[in-house]
Amino acid sequence: MDTGKLPRLPAVYSLIAKETVTSTMDEARALAELGEEQTPDGTLIWAKEQTAGHGRRGNPWDSPRGNFYASLIVRPDVPARQAAELGFVTGCAVFDTIGEVCEPGFECRLKWPNDILVNDCKIGGLLLEAKAEAGKPVDYVIIGLGINLKSHPKDTPYPASNFAAEGQIIPDDMFLEAFARHFMEWASRWVDDGFAPIRDNWKWRAKGIGKDITVRLGDKTLEGVFEDIGDDGSLVLSVDGNAQHIQAGDVFFPAAMAAED
Fold this sequence. Notes:
The structure is a single chain. The protein has helices at about 25-30, 80-85, 85-100, 170-195, 195-205, 255-260; strands at about 15-20, 45-50, 70-75, 110, 115-120, 120-130, 140-145, 210-215, 220-230, 235-240, 240-245, 250. It is of the alpha+beta class. The chain has two domains: about 5-205, Bira Bifunctional Protein, Domain 2 (BirA Bifunctional Protein, domain 2), CATH 3.30.930.10; about 210-260, SH3 type barrels, CATH 2.30.30. Helix 3 (about 85-100) packs across helix 4 (about 170-195) and helix 4 packs across helix 5 (about 195-205). The chain is globular.
């Protein structure tokens, strides 16, 4: 990649720009394992194309040129159970990024736990991976982010789209510059004030709170009302009046379920 045309990022970041990688998560993991001295907090891997991109549970993530693919290495002084809070930090940052780089008229919402929706279609997602020893702060957390700028996969479980199809052309370097600023702001707030304000801000950006939803788990499907986000980031689902805290699952809304049928 032409280093003379690299995006201008705040000084807290160390940008590594690649043309093609298997996945930015793979690149970030290999670098993070080298240790903090060689790969400090804020190391950010950005690629034009991935040949083996993946999302949650190892699901393939189509990664042609033209979209946005990046993974950020952070080394917060927190226990592993708090690392998941960075997903909400990132969600708020992406929401604000879209608000900055898009023209008015785009309805962005955050879909628990890690999807980004625009005009009710999935337009991106994030992935967290942490390494920690029992009883110790995390060694590192990798935050992967993929955004459909010019293309999107077909026949997905939840309707997908891309910004170009929605009438908005966004250069990937512009998206990166805006995201880097907003993530720094939200991460600083998380460090200074804890998870509570992040949780509150994420909730008003979210889709479906107070509404009927379907949650698909590994071995079963639950239907109920999306009541809240717990203090630990769990989805609080009211099933026949009983609150259940769900740590991981795939959320669907009635309109998306109807389109799938």
